[in-house]
Each structure stands twice: as C-alpha cells, then as structure tokens.
Amino acid sequence: MIAGAISAGIFLIAVISQLLLHGLSPRTALTIGVSMLLVSLGLIELALWDGSLAIFLAGTLAGGLAAGLAFMGGIATINLIAEPEHRAQVVAAFLACAFAGLTIPSVSVGLASQSIGTKDATLYCAIIIGALATVALTAIRRGKDINEGPQA
Questions:
Q1: CA 21 to chain centre
Q2: Is residue 148 situated within a structural domain?
Q3: Which terminus has fewer CB within 10 Å in the chain: N or C?
Q4: What string of DSSP letters covers 25-85?
Q5: Domain total for the chain?
Q6: Could you tell me if 81 and 94 are in contact, meaning their C-beta atoms sit under 8 angstroms apart?
Q7: What does the angle CA 119 – CA 123 – CA 124 come to, to the nearest 5 degrees?
Q8: 22 φ, ψ (degrees, to nearest 5)
C-alpha cells in the first residue's frame, strides 16, 4: 500500500506541477524538468543505499516535478514547432518514446536485479539515465530558442 501511494504521489506531483507552473516557457520547463530528473536520480539512489524513507520521498517529489515539467515542456515544444498536419503523428511518436522511457528502465532493472541485485541494478540504470539526461540538458541549453511566449 505504501509503495502504491508513493507511486501515485509521483503522478499527483507531476499534475500539480503542471497546473502551478503552466506559465513557464517550454525551454524553461524542459530545463527544470531534466535538471530535477538528475536530482531525483541522486536522491532515490542515496535513499536505496542509505535506507532513508525521508530521502526517498524527497527523490519522489523531485521525480514528480521532473516528470510533470519535462512532459509539459515536450508537448508544448511539439505544439510550437510541428506542422499542424503532422502534429498528431509527432505527438504519437513523443508518447511512444515517453512510454518506452518509462518501461525499458523498469524492465531492465527487474531483469538485472535477478543476477546482480537490486541496488547494483538501480545504480547502473541511474548512471545510464543520468548520462542521457545530461546529454539532453546540454542539447536543450544549446538549442535555438523558440520565440513564442509562455505555454498556455
């Protein structure tokens, strides 16, 4: 029950962050979202190795904020740059990638846990996701600014 409540909390925080921060530009939302993903990974890994529920909950809070802002910023960017006649296809591709990004690490950690243990499996996964997030953050910061106002 506690694990389910924590999982639900991530999504609740994601929704609340979108409602409260909807005025951010897509680029700012993405920058904060990906940065918070890195914070979340660090806190959750620390909590798993330390056994601290408080640190784990802080990591969950950061993860919910990361998910909400990254998703909001990604969809807003699509709405700004995709041609109207292709927008649905681009959103579908975005969602497929997002769901793959949620599924592949979960399944990978589950499989790897059987042979190397849960702590090592989550650590290796966090390192890979952290490296990918760092690349994404660099690309976001270097990318061209979309000269539209804040997302509605």
A1: 16
A2: no
A3: N
A4: -HHHHHHHHHHHHHHHHHHHHHHHHHT-HHHHHHHHHHHHHHHHHHHHHHHHHHHHHS-TT
A5: 1
A6: no
A7: 120
A8: -65, -15
**Looking at this protein, which amino acid is placed at residue 113?**
S
Instruction: Quote the CA–CA distance of 37 and 99 in Å, as a whole number.
Output: 16
Q: Is residue 152 part of a domain?
A: no
Number of residues that this document lists for the chain: 152
Both tokens of 73, joined, read: 């910023």
Six token digits for residue 14:
């994601």
Please report, in tens digits, the pLDDT of each residue of the chain (152 residues total): 888 888 899 999 999 999 999 999 999 999 999 999 999 999 999 999 999 999 999 999 999 999 999 999 999 999 999 999 999 999 999 999 999 988 999 999 999 999 999 999 999 999 999 999 999 999 998 876 665 444 44
Domain presence at residue 40: yes
| Residue that has been written with the tokens 């190795």 in this structure | 49
